[in-house]
Amino acid sequence: MKLIIQIPCLNEEDTLAITINDLPKSINGIDEIELLIIDDGSTDRTIEVAKKMGVNHIVKFPRNRGLAEAFKAGMDACLRLGADIIVNTDADNQYKGSDIPKLIQPLLTKKCDIVIGNRQTDSIAHFSPIKKFFQKFGSWIVRKISQTDIPDTTSGFRAYTREAALRINIVSEFTYTLETIIQAGHKKMAVGHVKIGTNGKLRESRLFKSIGNYMKRSANTIIRIYTMYRPLKVFMTTGFIMFVAGLCVSLRYVFYYLHGNGNGHIQSLILAATLMIIGFQVGLIGLVADLISNNRKLLEEALYRVKKMELDSAQTDHSPTPKYSISKKRNIS
Q1: What pTM does this model have?
Q2: Are 75 and 324 in contact (CB under 8 A)?
């Protein structure tokens, strides 16, 4: 059983060594533990520190692509390197490495496909009250639309089985945390969670400039991914609301018309017709989107099979990935 711990990095020369030193060197049930760094266009000594700390594999981007792309590239590299379990953690030492055995235990016992660390955000001292509130509120929304029970949906401390990693397809350019949970929920994967601890704050978050910015981008991600998996519900609900609104306006016009005041409310009739036509068209768009969604499911299944065949072939002939440069201290076994 091979575990690879991946760490996305952007200018982490000051914190990377601390993070790596905190990671476990051996875990019961795991035969091999390897470290993989995704250097997301760092301009400091991140790679030099990684090599000095004995990191096994380094994926390097020539320029910054963002956290979602770094996560996706790391997952792909881990699969190519033969990982049976993939753990993702942050380079700022936010998460306790000693919690990794607890994190992967449900995967070893085959109770879960994905496990996410619950930071218990109420207990994090450096989180402001407003940040704690929005963390809870956002997690509640994601739980509802993903049909999971994850209490801390923005936690980046998570573990995936090889099979789960093969089936996850990241399309967001912002962050992977919400998208992977929504995808996993709608793909009927077993998603679990365990309580974890956190270390003291070493630096400010680089993912977003402000809570407002984070909320806006997260909302866009949630709406987009949910619409991908439930287009009929989204468009039909929207169309129905607009159609009913138009119907109500038309009844208002009928009321005035029956009382002899119809000529003075012709605008209501125009508005009603417009709303009802748009509502009907939105409903039709929902039907078309649902057909596209079903086709996407077939494409995802085909992609899953292609990935498996490609990875099996890559492990046989040790062929490198063409999407990015990956350096390793030893050959893939």
Answers
A1: 0.81
A2: no
Q: Which of 88, 92, 16 is nearest to 52 (CA)?
A: 16
Spatial distance between the Cα atoms of 191 and 181, rounded to a whole number of angstroms: 8
DSSP state of 283: H
pLDDT tier, 19 (very low <50, low <70, confident <90, very high otherwise): very high
Q: What span, in angstroms and rounded, lies between the C-alpha atoms of 9 and 40? A: 6
Chain segment 240-285, per-residue pLDDT in tens: 999 999 999 888 888 877 877 767 677 888 899 999 999 999 999 9
Q: Which of 140, 141, 124 is nearest to 132 (CA)?
A: 124
Contact yes or no for 38/6 (Cβ under 8 A): yes
Beta-carbon contacts of residue 255 (< 8 Å; ≥ 6 apart): none
Pairing of strands 325-328, 191-195: unpaired
Sign of the alpha-carbon torsion through 282, 288, 292, 295: positive
Rounded to an integer, what distance in angstroms lies between the CA atom of residue 44 and that of residue 67? 17
Distance CA 9, CA 67 (A): 9
